[in-house]
Amino acid sequence: MSKAIKEQPSAENPEELMDLKVTKPKKWAAGIPAVTAAMVDMMQESGFVRGMDGLFHMNKKGGFDCSSCAWPDPDDDRSPIAEYCENGAKAFAEESTLKKIGAEFFAQNSVADLAKLNDYEIGKKGRIAEPMYLPKGGTHYQPISWDNAFRKIADKLNGLASPNEAAFYTSGRTSNEASFTYQLFVREFGTNNLPDCSNMCHESSGSGLGETIGIGKGTVTLNDFYDTDVIIIMGQNPGTNHPRMLTALQKAKENGSKIIAINPLHEAGLMGFKNPQTVKGMLGITAHLADLFLQVKINGDMALLKAIEKLLYIAEIKEPGKVFDQEFIKQHTKGYTEFLHSLAENTIEELSEECGIPVPQIEQAAELLKYKSRIIICWAMGITQHKNGVDTIKEIVNLTILKGSIGKPGAGLCPVRGHSNVQGNRTMLIFDKPTEKQLDKLKEVYGFEPPREHGFDVVESIKAMHEGKVKVFFSMGGNFLSATPDTNYTAEAMRKLELTISVSTKLNRTHLVHGEEALILPTLARSDKDMINGEAQLISCENSMGVIQMSKGILQPVSDDLLSENQIVCKMAKATIGSRSVVDWDRFEKSYDAVRDDIEKVVPGFTDYNKRVRNPGGFYLPNGPRDGEFVAKDMGGKIPFTITQLTEHKLADDEFIMMTIRSHDQFNTTIYGLEDRYRGIHNERRVIFMNPKDIKKAGFKAGDKVDLFNYYGGIERSAHLFVIVSYNIPEGNTATYYPECNVLVPIDSVAKKSNTPTSKMVIIKIKKHKEK
Predict the structure, then answer these.
(1) 508: CATH
(2) Are residues 210 and 196 in the same domain?
(3) Residue 82 structural domain
(4) Residue 459 main-chain phi, psi, to 5 deg
(5) For residues 717 and 698, what is the distance between their CA atoms, to the nearest angstrom?
(6) Higher-pLDDT residue of 530, 274
(7) Which residue, 117, 212, 495, 701, shows the most beta carbons closer than 10 Å to its own?
(8) pLDDT of residue 279 exceeding 70
(9) Is residue 299 part of a domain?
(10) Which of 212-226 are b and which e, b meaning 16 or more Cβ less than 10 Å from the residue's Cβ?
(11) Looking at the 3D structure of the chain, how many domains does it have?
(12) Co-location of 195 and 211 in the same domain
């Protein structure tokens, strides 16, 4: 690393410890502590009146959509008390804060000084109140007018040798309307460089499902959870990442469903739930969730699925037609015989060893599934962020179609999306690899020839920055640096850029690791009123289950100098393309209804968009597999069984597998606080969870300070000063929080086909901490 790079502000959190306190992990989630924690955050940030006004409208029909996770709202009646969870309330507190920063703050705080803070401290500074600009060689951001900001962007973009020298990132909070105008501008400008947060999370789901059932989305509705026999939760921690899912699981249990939880950690939200909106929950009575918990090794999920399938096949041989849905298999699948032959490749004992689950427990899982067909399988990053993530999802599909568990009530596939509109971004054509059909439609409606060459995804964009192929980077929301893998490699890439532009509500580390010049463009939050020409605008989002619903902010923005994301796109388009454009950007800027009218023309499923989005609860997008149309005719009309191969995990004696996880006090890269109370970690984030046998074998003890190393591709990556925490995790496996340990995730270690970074499968070595 060059001397110049070393002198730059740090891309990582400070290597310093606080005052770690470890308590016994919880066996249940939510309850009164969740209510208390949410209210404390709200009072500190927005105050009682403003805070309660916002919470009363959040996720309500006619209100605004939570900017946190993408779990769906009930179709029918919604809670009169609180249609949100602890993390949703904390997300609202973050964006509704009355604290704000602008010219005076940035004059007093240099970029280098701000980079010395940890992510929690950076995020607590407040809402960005005006556009800010960092000139070449500058040490402090300084105010800039909106017109001058757009002029700088336009000059830089128009000065590029090719439109492909710019990349345009999108986070999952961007609305459907802004996503649509954003991709339209980018394509009229002339590139498909549209990396997005899907590339780092559920891209594997999109690839695996798209190649099997023909649509890269889930096939269930929320109501299916209330009328099912078995729910399988894999690679997902709903208590922290999708807390409102717990209510659906509780209702499923009350209606007779069984729950199988598969995870390397005994997460509280998989075990029990104290619903604070019920009398029992208020009294501290726990609703037990998982009927069977399978503590799988990291990335042992495919082996477990194969073992279950093998046991079910043995049962099917004994009772033909009673275990597998032979009628479904005959009518709607192909490759069944070949798939059955592949099940003979491994013994049950071999598969048990590979997944880490004793054979009797696998037999219990198979028994729960044997005579059932109303089965829902849910998953998240614990499945997708592996080299074999796409194949593991295809194995999930294999089990589903063996049982005929798709296209019927109470059954189907459920990839649980993270950020609130990440699925909607993709529906709105935010994708670096658009189909010819999609591009043809844009040409038909607008008259310009969109670029046909595939663009860069996230990993490809970072590499292109390094190689000088990308010179301008525009980020529509998010904290790109902290969300991406190989933190220092990514930081070096971003510092080679000529201009970085961030559309943001609050300060984050991406603003501090920048190109030669940098712009911060402050935007409205979901809960903010969006007024244009005296008329309140509404936006829309798509949740995990394909429901499009309106969102309308109700709070007075903390500054009069904020623009909506859609306004920013339209003004940038007018400044950049100007008279060359064939798009009426003024029309889009003045009315979001006009944007929706055009979405209706371009994107299938949005007939009568403006009318239907105003219906209480919104509307469902078409979903072929959910409606019994499993695969398009041009894909052969039948769901293929996939023959997958197990991945061997050979470790040296001093090596461990590490997965990165969220604490309970964060959402993605936003750190709400320092309390991971479900896992018993307080006032610290620089910890590594280890099996007590591994700790002893490696010559450590709980509480030791250690440094972590990854040597993928012959390159040393290091994360210094972490504290060992003894925890119930499979031997050879460890867990750490991100973004602190993203520095260890190699840029070249990605899932096959989806190119998703393998953040849940990092080989590390652990050494005694050495003071620098």
Answers:
(1) 3.40.50.740
(2) no
(3) 29-96
(4) -65, -45
(5) 20
(6) 530
(7) 212
(8) no
(9) yes
(10) bbbbbbbbbbbbbbb
(11) 4
(12) no
Pair 523, 663 in one domain = no
pTM score: 0.95
Do 341 and 407 reside in the same domain of the chain?
yes
720 token code pair:
């210094």
Tell me which of 283-287, 480-484, 490-494 is least confident: 283-287
Strand order in the sheet with 29-30: 29-30, 272-274, 287-288
In this structure, is residue 9 part of a structural domain? yes
Among 729, 407, 527, 438, smallest CA distance to 98 is for 527
Q: Are residues 331 and 366 in the same domain?
A: yes
pLDDT of residue 93: 84
Contact 354, 300 (CB under 8 A): yes
Judged against a pLDDT cut of 50, whether residue 315 lies above it is answered with yes
* Pair 559, 468 in one domain: yes
In sequence order, what are the beta bridge partners of 357? none
Amino acid identity of residue 543, one-letter, is: N
Residue 82 reports pLDDT greater than 70: no
Measuring CA to CA, how many Å separate 224 from each of 219, 256, 523? Answer: 10, 13, 37
Least confident of 62-66, 615-619, 721-725: 62-66
> Which domain CATH number covers 670?
2.40.40.20
pLDDT of residue 631: 73
Judged on CB neighbours under 10 Å (0-12, 13-18, 19+), 559 is: middle
Question: If you average pLDDT over residues 61-90, what whole number do you get?
Answer: 79
Q: Check: CB of residue 306 under 8 Å from CB of residue 346.
A: yes
Q: Using CA atoms, how far apart are residues 12 and 510, in angstroms rounded to an integer?
A: 11
User: Are residues 148 and 33 part of one domain?
Assistant: no
User: How much is the average pLDDT of 86-113?
Assistant: 92
pLDDT in tens, 282-314: 667 677 899 999 999 999 999 999 999 999 999
503 and 408: one domain? no
Q: Which residue, among 153, 85, 134, has the nearest Cα to 568 in the 3D structure? A: 153
How many residues are given for the chain?
Answer: 772
Q: How many CB atoms lie within 10 A of CB 360?
A: 8
Q: CA-CA distance, 532 to 481, in Å (whole number)? A: 33
Candidates 171, 145, 134; CA nearest to 519 is 134
In a domain, 134, yes or no: yes
Is 723:20 a contact under the CB 8 Å cutoff?
yes
Q: What CATH number does the domain containing 228 carry?
A: 3.40.228.10
pLDDT given at position 3: 38
Q: Write down the pLDDT at residue 1.
A: 36
| Residue 56 pLDDT > 90 | no
